[in-house]
Amino acid sequence: MAKQGKIHVGIGGWTFEPWRGTFYPDKLPQKRELEYASGRLTSIEINGTYYGSQKPESFARWHDETPEGFVFALKGPRFATNRKQLAQSRESVERFLSSGLLELKDKLGPINWQFMETKKFEPEDFESFLGFLPASIEGRPLKHAVEVRHASFAAPDFIALARRHGVAVITAGDSKFPQIADPTADFVYLRIMGTDDRHDRGYSEAELDVWAERARAYAGGGAPGDLDRASGDPAAKTPRDVYLYVISGHKERNPAAAMALIERLR
User: Fold this and answer.
1) Which domain holds residue 47?
2) Is the pLDDT of residue 1 over 50?
3) Distance in angstroms (rounded) separating the CA atoms of residues 252 and 240
């Protein structure tokens, strides 16, 4: 068994006008922005899949424009998660999973199923949704994560449910959302949202050090002792891959923060 999981660090998307001339060099053609970003980061979370379907050709192009070892996280469609009754979302889940995302091949990372702040934890209905998430499609294993944003999910019953289904609970860092840092799957998904314009790299050097150490703790099979967990039941101590995304906050600084974390984690 490996003693350390892989740690992937990135940002949300790659098309953002204020990054041109700051993160991206002046006069870099827009069609080369993904190529540039993927050469400096190790992962990107794709937000466009949350709002609408993508063509198989797009997934294939993203695969070809990025280097070996790079991975994408995908947002699951809002049509599946923004429902009063999640038990009715099977068709939306299946449609998304058959939309061509396998064209990413070995660059397909976790799928983030994001829920609205108003969505409360209703155990039976939420378990119905988790039952719609297959462990694999066409022989390729899938990694599923849920991003829940209502305080009712900070409960031991929810953690136990996620563990039974092997689904990761996304940890919200430096945000207004409940922080649920319990490992529940064979990987960990972190979204940190505290960058600001006071620091050139979005966070202070000390704050970057802390997040790098937290990522190392998860990758090594442990869990940080300074993040809030919802359950007193310890997770199995096993190395886990870690996906860490610098999201929201002062978005202009997010690429710099992600690159600073990558430097620390080398």
Assistant:
1) 7-265
2) no
3) 30
